[in-house]
Amino acid sequence: MASTSITITVDDVEYTDDVEPRLLLVQYLRERLGKTGTLVGCDTSNCGACTVHLDGTSVKACTMLAVQADGHEVTTIEGLAPNNGRDGELHPMQKAFHEAHALQCGFCTPGMIMQAINVLDEHPDPDEQTVRDGLEGNLCRCTGYQNIVKAVMAAGASTGGAHKAEGGAA
Length: 170
Hints:
Layout: E1 4-10, E2 13-19, H1 25-32, E3 51-54, E4 57-60, E5 73-75, H2 92-99, H3 109-122, H4 128-134, H5 146-159
Parallel strand pairs: 1-5
Antiparallel strand pairs: 1-2, 3-4, 3-5
């Protein structure tokens, strides 16, 4: 199959690659760029484990082709923290998830965090139902969601609406 040249900025680094037109964005991120925090959980877009930000808006990377991201900015969980996490500092949402014990096995956590940031972008001061509705497309099989909702609300309260990704496009 013929390759297509794409240029994508991922976590503040520009990449130019030749890819097959049918390559999924999640495969490109994981297999070509080593961004293994973007997980493949279901291959059907039901779980949200592959959620990343495309130009600041959450998308499920298993439903998007890499060629569709050509010319865009992608932020993964690895690039979310200030300075892409090089100084060990966490993004406020990552801190909130840690402090609220909003994870157990951790499989859903990267996608859940990426979607939670998007929820706060759209609703800076959400109530519990708004958070639950906003996270609806992301599944967690371990926590029962209560601590996840608490974390999102705490992150919103602690940042006063300043919760966008500092290390990337979100």
